[in-house]
Predict the 3D structure of the following.
Amino acid sequence: MDVNQVYNVILYASAKNKQQGYVSPADFYTIINTAQRSYLDYLLGEYQKYQVQRPIAVVEFGQNERIRDSISPLIYNAILPINPTTGIASRPSDYEYIDAMWGVYGNYNIRFAQQDRLDSYIHSEIDQVTTNPVYLIRHEGFQFFPDRPFNENQAKMSYVRNAPSIVWGSVNDSNGRAVYDPSTSQQPIWSETDMMNIIVRALQLVGVNLQLGTLIQYSQEIKNGGQ
């Protein structure tokens, strides 16, 4: 589903359900990227919905294969250089959420540790960090214990990156009207099903509340009409 199809669905749904239903390209950029951000937060597990003494979201990344499949276009690997003095590695510039951390060779797991449990990891006689490294999440990035996990100045990370902005690019025709220009557009990375869920959220931002089934019907009407 390309960005022009997405924009047409939003225009169609807005016109059908609001008297002043036009959504400008600038408004489209704002609402679709806000909705995309909201949907990614939902898939990763909205911590705002955690219950007392039960920090589990209704939907959570890693919960099942279906959710991971939705996020898969955003899962990247990176090699992190580790400062050998501080044991700290910076996050990638597009970092959103960590998936897994390993030694740079052999995919040996490096475990996440909560700050209040670090002492027990470091002083454990059974599960020593020299052979089973751990990392903390800090504002500077990731701090490793020991400073050089598996005697290396690097670690390998799988992470979820920020979703790239969805952009409907345009040029003006002979009448000065904006028409779609794929060369200046940025396409969505999501599957069609996930994109429909994002459109539902985008429409809510302009006051149009639709069920997913209704939106799919609108999309089919647009296709049948040759738009």
